Amino acid sequence: MDFHFKGKSLKGELRVPSDKSVSHRSVIIGSISDGEVFVENFLRSDDCLRTVSAFRSLGVEIEEEGSNLRILGKGKHSLKEPFDVIDLGNSGTSIRLISGVLAGQSFYSVLTGDKYLRRRPMDRIAIPLRMMGATVLGREGGKYPPLTIVGAGKLKGIAYRTPKASAQVKSAVLLAGLYSDGPVSVTEPAKSRDHTERMLKAFGVDVEVEGLTVKLGKNRDPKGDINITVPADISSAAFFMVGAAITPGSEVLLKDVILNPTRTGILSVMERMGAKISVENAREESGEPVGDLLVSYSPDLVSTEISGEEIPTLIDEIPVIALLATQAEGETVIRDAAELRVKESDRIKSTVENLRRIGADVEELPDGMVIRGKTDLLGGKVSSYGDHRIAMTFVIASLITESPVVIDDVECISTSYPGFLKDFRSLTK
Ligand code: S3P
Q1: For a 10 Å CB count at each end of the chain, is N or C smaller?
Q2: For a pocket test of ligand 1, which of 18, 45, 48, 93 has the largest count of ligand atoms closer than 8 A to its C-beta?
Q3: Distance in Å, CA 354 to ligand 1 centroid
Q4: Which residues of 54-88 are buried (b: 16+ CB within 10 A; e: fewer)?
């Protein structure tokens, strides 16, 4: 598909779709809770709907009313053995978090996904879940999906140190920990997103956080009978934040965006780079900080360094931050982000190759990249590599390229943001 919007700007107000991480967790924890859970503004994207169908196949009743869900939780021991293989499509969050829940069941289940998901590493969750007593099998010695899980019913306690900051691994262990009465803790090398901890607490589970360690306390039965309102996803807002900052004449107001400090790395980076961005109407909703973001064209962007503990706070935004860096004066260095190589695509390779194809000056590093700006982008043929965030990054690039950006596959965008092209067109004036 061809995109060419040079000369146009982004203008107007938008509520981007709801947060993907919070939407997944509302279904997962709601399904094992003991009561009715009403989820308002659930994200109806491919990934999150996979989580819904997975729990339906585990016997949970979930009603859809527009973009709201009603989950009829019957307690953590109410799940039933699925009649078929559970297909989680492209969704890494679904397969890894659901594995944690299945480790605590006393039945057999098989989890698979699309050709991209079947190449993503699952040993990171299989290792701690086996330590807790579950049987987790997979291709190549248990590393890749399809995964077979035979739960242990009751699991052993664990004091797990994750080798890398990963909310998916932390969450899999905490969810499995609900099926143990031994001590359960997870310690990370840097803080990853904490939506699981926040939501478990909202469901009445005892969760203690001390620095980089999360511990489960005595009460491990999610209660239910609550309402959850899902805020807008900062990872989706990121495309319009960057689009507005690099495109002359732009000003966008992005409403109800989740501003959890484990997710706002892109805000700090854009501020450091000199972007015109402000937070308005800061408030809290369902245990998560939320606000509106006003972003406008920022002609004097400068380079920055992004590394270490900041990486997990903006991990999904790095492709679009790299695009931003092409419009900043100086050398932007991104390091300590080797995790990008095992996302929906190898996002270091897919970002660097595509940026080069449209005329940017970018060097690949084993764990990141160096972007030299400011460059006038030319346009050209790029590949999304089946990765939603790569496709959206290069649609945004087409606001400033001399010639069209031709993207091979944009269907993958529905993984997280089904209405993206429509919203993009509605803001493009
Ligand atoms: C997610 C955690 C992150 C992130 C992913 C969503 C989550 O992955 O990249 O898009 O909802 O827990 P890792 O846990 O692999 O860092």
Answers
A1: C
A2: 93
A3: 23
A4: bbebbebebeeeeeebebbbbebeebeebeeebbb
Residues sharing a CB contact under 8 Å with residue 238, sequence separation 6 or more, in sequence order:
266, 316, 317, 320, 321
Cβ(48) – ligand 1 distance below 6 Å:
no
Ligand 1 atom closest to the CA of 167, numbered from 1: 14
Helix (H) or strand (E) segment spanning residue 243: helix 234-246
User: Residue 123 Cα, ligand 1 centroid: separation in angstroms?
Assistant: 15
Q: Where in the chain is the domain with CATH 3.65.10.10?
A: 2-17+231-427, 20-229
CATH class of 20-229: alpha beta
pLDDT tens, position by position, 202-260: 999 999 999 999 999 999 999 999 999 999 999 999 999 999 999 999 999 999 999 99
pTM to 2 decimal places: 0.98
Residue-level pLDDT at 153: 87
Q: Best substitution site from 26, 50, 51, 166 to test ligand 1's pocket, by max atoms within 8 Å of Cβ?
A: 166
The torsion defined by the Cα of 41, 269, 341 and 53, in degrees rounded to 10, comes to: 0
3-state DSSP call for residue 280? strand
CA atoms of 165 and 177, how far apart (whole Å): 18
pLDDT over 90 at 407, yes or no: yes
Of residues 141, 176, 140, 170, the one with CA closest to residue 155: 176
CA 141 to chain centre: 27
The CATH class that applies to domain 2-17+231-427 reads alpha beta
Task: Give me the active site residues, please.
Answer: 316
Euclidean distance between CA atoms 59 and 86, whole angstroms: 12
pLDDT at 421 over 90: yes
d(CA 420, ligand 1 centre) in Å: 21
User: Within 10 A of 297 (CB to CB), how many other CB atoms are there?
Assistant: 17
Model confidence at 286: pLDDT above 90? no
